[in-house]
Amino acid sequence: MKKQYPKLILICFCLFTTLVCFSQISHGNETVNQVSTTGEIPKSFPLFDKQLDSIEQFVITTPVKPKSRFQLFMLGEHHQSVYLNQYKFSVLDLSSHKGGLEVIKKGGGKQTNSLRLATNDNKEYVMRSITKDVTRGIPYPFNKMALVTYLFRDNYLGSHPFAPLTIPTMADAINIYHANPSLYFIPKQPKLDVYNDLFGNEVYIVEERASKKWPELASFGHAEKFVSTPDLTEKLVKNHHHHVDQNWVARSRLFDVLIGDFDRHDDQWRWTVTTLANGDKSYRPVPRDRDQAFSKYDGFVIKLLSPYNALLRQLTDYEEPVKNFKWATYNSRHFDNNFLNELSLEEWKKEAAFIQAKLTDEVITTAFSHLPPKVYEVSAPKIIASLKARRADLQN
Fold it and tell me: What pLDDT score does 311 carry?
């Protein structure tokens, strides 16, 4: 009978979700900003032409409705309270920002649409949509089913869209590298060119991209060059003149655990390159895409199914303490095995103690002051309490 439990659970789950979600799906839970892929350049840009300095906007284009008590219990609250409100965002004109930005390439992972941008002096930035694209993360034909797309969209509410704004202050305090993200409303505009059909008229996170060189940027270590994780792995195998600063890696990874950022696979990192006095090369990590910091994946369904799925085991509520270190670091297991294989326990504890000493209450208060007041009100107190408790427990 025990072998039948997983199947019974899945059947119950399907029945439950069908009943719970039917009323919302029948009312049309489609995305506001539907896009085509024609590649045609619009003839007019009515919103852009208004030359607004700021605009009141929801953080994502997908409609979010308050849940009933039953839905909250079964599917979880996630960070729904953050997504239910409108906020004031600065409006970004690509032709003037940073002296003018040109689109050089379309990017994005399984869930996110992004564009790579470049300035006149060849500095690269990335604009990444806060709205997740469910059609890319779900295989066909399931991505066409209203029930399935609803469940995935609801689960995306577990990520905190404003969390990246808190990272730079804390990262500076503990001396690890970071980008400097800002949230903007980017309207459709001439500079988006053929990408206007896929991008624009929504909120994006804009930040520096760790590529080529950033000698003037302290948060990237004044780097003259960056390499990817696969390229670094090849160099390490090639000869012994390439070295990873594993103490720096350890401090960066401890910070990941501290903020609950579990999605730290190989492609979430770039590496600065420094030439040592003897001609050898030293490498330090630069994290990318802080989308999962302080995430909140709660609800009875996830708790019920997580023992049967590795991915679901990683989707937890950001709280204290870290309940299972294995699953908190599961996505980065290959990264950790490759770049954290030389440190002693004493060295790990030294890095943990350094973070505990430098990440003071004052630093945390300053970091979270960058959140909009309403966002702070509905989400920050619990996150800050959990963060401080994790900090106290870091050496354990």
Answer: 81
